[in-house]
Batch of 3 targets.
Target 1
Amino acid sequence: MTFANSTSDNPGPDFQALFEAVPSLYLALDPGLRIVAASDAYLSATLTHREDVLGRGIFEVFPDNPDDLTATGVANLRASLVRVLSQKRPDVMAVQKYDIQRPHSDGGGFEVRYWSPINTPVLSPRGDLSYIIHRVEDVTEFVRLKEAHMAQEGLTSELEDKATRMEAEVFQRAQEIQETNRQLRDLQVHLETRVEERTAELQEAITALKQSEDQLRQSQKMEAVGRLAGGIAHDFNNLLTVIFSASQSLEAKLGEDKHLGAILLASERAARLTRQLLAFSRQQILAPQAIDLNASLEGLSPILQRLLGEEVELQILCNRGLRTIFADPGQMEQVILNLAINARDAMPDGGKLTIEVGNADLDEAYARDHHGVTPGRYAKLVVSDTGHGMDKATQARIFEPFFTTKGPGKGTGLGLSTVFGIVKQSHGHIWLYSELGVGTTFKIYFPEMHREDQLTLDASVSPALDEGGNETILLVEDEDMVREVAGNTLREAGYTVLEARNGEEATEICLRSTERIHLLVTDVIMPGINGRKVSELAVSAHPDMAVLFMSGYTDDAILRHGVLEANVPFLEKPFTPNRLRIKVRETLNRSTRAEEGK
């Protein structure tokens, strides 16, 4: 019997050999009642050979005895098999008289036999019947003893004992066979489940790919630019880390110098540029802060002017008494920029874009009319344009991912869906008002920053201690220059530094080291084993080891729901030697306090 999950490279368990060697009488039938497998014991008991029965119908191989006009073996067995096919449940038959045909070499004819059959269905994970296991016990001798016992009252006690032993043996064998059947079924179900799971995963992937083909074609250019921007920003962050470190090292040796100052100033401007690139590619590290939307608009004003062009008039209306909100600054900038781009595209012949902020108190009545709103104090961001506006059908779908009213290749359909997601992630609400030929207004409400938010910020701020230590640190960084400057910085601060170029080397160092390693400082994104996996392997080898992640990318290893976890030490690239020493010391101190608190 060949199983569906067997391959030439991984044949799996030899179930055919197992089935044929079972010391019990088994047949395997397909739904058409053709014989597909037989145990050696069955063939021996029925005086048949495997090559003579496989592929043939069971009643073709085992007909009724034509000399026995009262024979009911075929009819009874057929009825039982039909019940199994229709009900998909095991069917236990009474003891049957079913004569077996002798081979011509043994004289031919039929031999009287009695059997105890059980027919059991084998179902697929979807509930379809795949096979029927026909298991029998040859009870001919037992029946004959019973008949002799009934016919001869004077049967000796020896025969009675033998009959009892045989009955017990039949029951025991039946139990053994039942257990063997259960184990075979469990193995089959397990293997079929694995095949089904892999098939479902593949089917799901194929379906998702087909559904997104058109969407991917529309967003191909923007996606490529986003990846390019993220990759450039990542490389910039590594280079800027080296520049920061080298410049500050020179400044420490040479003192203040205008040329070094210019290098540092240019590096800081480049770092701001990389943050903008990461925001564009949606790979920015997210961390909520106290935000004044007035300051956000003032900072974005020059970018907005260039973005809109000369044909669109920009008006920004600030509010000096504006409430503070608790959100990620990069996210807020992305909201404003996306809405501005949407407004610009709605005014191809020019117009006016007004961005206004203010306070709003949303009461119970407003909350009843606007699903999902919690009454309270909010800061309001209003973005209005004088564009062509939207009809009701468009408004109903405007926040759906990949929905766009622009022509092919002119929009990804992700801008406003991204705005919607950011607003909801920041516990805010967004409402749309639009009229054809008049324009569109987006009103966004962000809840006022609460005292708990301030406590979160306060708890996340640690004393800035630029001091060294004597602990042992394992530094894992695939960029050679970054690893070199970071290692030198930590050694100059008094630490013992073990360096690894990748996750594999770091794992070997952890497993080989017999001395305590106090801290793992690891890049998150690396070829091969990433930083998250490195930290898991390292901590399993050194349970008391603290971990400090560093990266210019976001990654699931350090993020949860898009927000940086407060309890995960993280150092954002690019960093200065001073910032590296401070973060290392903070992480080690926190680990020490945690150990003392145990």
Note: The longest strand covers residues 351-362.
Target 2
Amino acid sequence: MDGMKTRLAAFVLTATAALGAAACGGSGGQDKAGGAATPVVLRLANTNGDLDFTPAVEYFASRVNQLSGGHLRVEAVNGWGDSAPDAEQQVVRATSDGGVDLGWVGTRVFDTLGYKRFQALTAPMLVDSYTLEHAVIRSGIPAQMMHGLDGLGVAGLGVLPDGLRKPIGVKKPILRPVDWRGLTFGTLRSNGQVAAIRALGATPVEAQWKDRERRLTSGALNGFETSIWVHQQNPTLVHLAPYVASNVNLWPQMDVLLANPARLRALTAAQRGWLEQAAREAATRSAALAEKEAKALGDSCAAGARFAAASSATLASLEAAFAPAYARLRRDPETNAFIARILKLKRSTGPDAAMAIPASCTGKAPAHAVVKGSVPAFLNGTYRFMLTQADADKVGDTDTGYPSVETIRLKNGRLDGGCFGSAGGTYSVDGERLTFHSIEYDTDLTVRFTVDDRGTLNLTPVPPMDPGDAFTCFYKPWTKIRGAGAAKARRVSLNGTYRYVLTKADARAAVPNAPDLDTYPQLNTWKLENGRYSNPGGLAGIYSLDGNRIIFDVPAFGYDLTFRFSVDGDGNLRLRPVPPMNRGDRFVWSYKLWKKIG
């Protein structure tokens, strides 16, 4: 069946649950250190597109691997819930029923599941510094709050620090209580946060990730809450809503690490010890978060964000405006007691140092077109090209200052160097088009692009474009000198058409009790050509090569898939998954040999 785009999406959701035990693996044979001879993989549900949006959770996953010497690994299953308003609730349910081994969610969501013990952590403007967040975690309060999670069918491994969430405005900074009135304001699912937003006279709207971007683009949202580094990591958010209230800390995101109780019991004592130690160490990362925020501020400003600070009087008026939300929280005796304990800690804990905000990062945000699309990771790297006098003469450029060597760095939507000005800019991909925004010149330049097997970018200007810009920026191919697919990679062409069939027997073998067996056999046809892939079902995107690895950017799912590949004498392609990757993707993309048919 060539309708692969629809089938793949459905399969990933169904196969993931069916593969529970297989995905985790058994405890395996024991080595002398008490670890597993074959690595045990624990799958962690992550609602974001990548773990780097939650630094303490990312640290936890990495630390488990380090402590165990690779015997125990945490594999993130990204995009869990597909941006649905109940995505975090889905994580709790999936962890409880064994669909995944581990998961993380913000403490905010538990009050929507009838579990109120975490409410004090996101009481508005209570925990308003990284110093206090660290003190709260050290006090043992979050550990006490986890007692009772078994009632939801999950075990709590720890509560980790995360970013202080600030109001982000579309048209202006959201500082004073009056600024909130009449706004439609995006938040994640949480009864407490909804009540706090309503207390300020705004209308809360549950929206995250892709849905939030759609609503911002359409004008359905006037603002939302997030941390500075999450805002900075997505250039689209910076362009759609550039105004950050730098010292209005609404609440912290604090992340609860969850485990399936049965899966946890099935681990050895050593394996459980590695998980527990990694969680304890990750819980101490508040200082690292403060440093990350300070660094992100500069990058965010360069991308076009603008910052404003509220006065002490304004902060006091905001706290007073939250009185109805506190009255609601204090009706629960246990929450009231936790609030009192945190207030006591707050009185004995100094505030964070004020963020240093350059004057150039304040005031009116630069006007620019919204950059839509994705920022595929395989474009990350450093590129170089040289314009010679002969090149200039050929296009009629009268300048004699050649040769000129240009070096451009691309990373996660941010660009520096080259012809785009000293302030750098941003970029994003929409299909076969790559759009660059220069902050210094306040211009957008769009090109069609292809990527060859060595990572070189071939760029064709899309009119209208100034001829000087077209020559200076895009006349020569950009040779990749650092990053995935750089020139050191071996030359190999995978251009061609490939086909394979997934049978009912394949599904049974790969997925015990596999659902939807009546949809098999499935005929899958892929075309690879000069860095682009497609199939008749409409799934299409860009791929790149890095040594023996092929990286597919899959815009339809919001993430990349990486495989090791080999080519036999007939040109057939064998793919071997590079973790982390969910089992549905592994089966659909790499279970069978891709036979070259053209």
Note: The CA atoms of residues 450 and 584 lie 29 Å apart.
Target 3
Amino acid sequence: MDRPLSSGKMVCLAVLMIVLVSSFAMVGSVLADEWPMFHKDLSHSGYSTGSAPHENCVLWTYKTGGDVWSSPAVADGMVFIGSLNNDVYALNASTGALVWTYTTLGEVYSSPAVADGMVVIGSTDNNVYALPEQDPNGDGVIDAGEVIWTFTTLDEVWSSPAVADGMVFVGSNDNNVYALPMNDPDGDGVIDAGEVIWTYTTGGDMYSSPAVAHGKVFVGSRDNNVYALNEFTGALVWTYTTGGWVDPSPAVADGMVFVGSNDNKVYALDESTGVLVWSYTTGSDVKSSPAVADGMVFVGSYDNRVYAFGVPVVMPLDINVDVGSIHFRGEIAEFYVLTSINSGATNSTITKAKLYYSSGTLTTDLTVSITRIATGLYRIPYTIPTDAPEGTYTLVIEANYITSTIEANGVSFKSFHLSATLTGWDAWLTEINDGVATIQTTEGTIQTTLNSINARITSIDGNTATIQTDIGTIKADVSTIDTESIPSIADTQKNQGTTQYVIAAISALAALGALGTMALILTKRKQT
């Protein structure tokens, strides 16, 4: 019993049926988005605006007689490609059916260029071939008499031709770049030496394939150089010397030439002058030819990586600052900053955290005090001086988030009022921990060290102590204070039922170390 097809296979079959039906209408027509030469166009962008499959649905395969190094060209409903069995193939783009083959006398590493009804390709038999796009007699084989023309160089041709303005540009391992006529001038089927439009001799083998843009031909050589030549005369416009062989083919975009080298680098050169714009060092040789699309440059390296270069997307970084509404002299304040992108908390770099007085005077730089406590959330502690002027203070925050693809920047600020006194804010001492006092007010909780505000008890009424400080009056419920750490208060509580107390001296002592807590020195006098 046959198993039912998976949904993926059913989709593939449906697509294949559509392709087969539509292929009959496509014969002799031009595909909406063709790829007629190496890396698609004369600038070697390697970029297509056409649609592409979103699944690995194989529509067809064709088995050649050897390894395939050559890259396909697609034009007029056909796929053209070379193989290391010496053959050049033309296949139906929709079905993969063989249309024709042509056999050279050497391996075909070169990738074809299709233009004006011709397929131009090189071979390791030293020749460049111009073959008819359509088989003249329809027998499936391009015979010797059907070849439009050949051109013989002095060494193997690995370079892939580029066709522009009625000329064919191609390199050879004889160190030369050639500009050949697209049409054989005398029609004898051979481009003779006298019919070559121009030749430029480099200092090394030419595996690189020429790119043509804005009246110039750009190509690399194994003499370590990148060349820019006049398209029509072959005159040298500029050279740039890298640190290794330049086997990859240049790509031209946005006024720059992008190319790799065996010195491990990717280069961006000024198209007009050859001046270095930027370079990047990968982990090994760069033999890959760059592709350019959507403002990015893509290239591979022998370090097993594919690289994408581009301009980071610029977007805002949201910064939320929380400083509270009011603070007091001597307080150990804590400010908080949350950074986010598109409503998502993001770890950023806070480059500035400065506190300003209302006059615009810089009070202090808190940048070095920042601590991250959660994703995108930062704490900034600040001990407010006891002599700080009363008034409005503003914390200004600047931050950024920068990666290879995103650049986000932001600025934010928040203000608070600094009060000179706690009096009138119903301040209660609720805890003493490691010398730090927690004080609850009508505006919230603050922390301070008692020795820094010169705290001293002025009276005790039942369990309520009145504490006078440099910043005003604080109340405290002595029953909630750790009496073990404040011996004088403990002694007072033991004897309070039978004695009357006169407060002879009160001060804040450093009972818990350098920070200090409150200690009381009480003088007891019995009723007479």
Note: The chain has two helices and 40 strands.
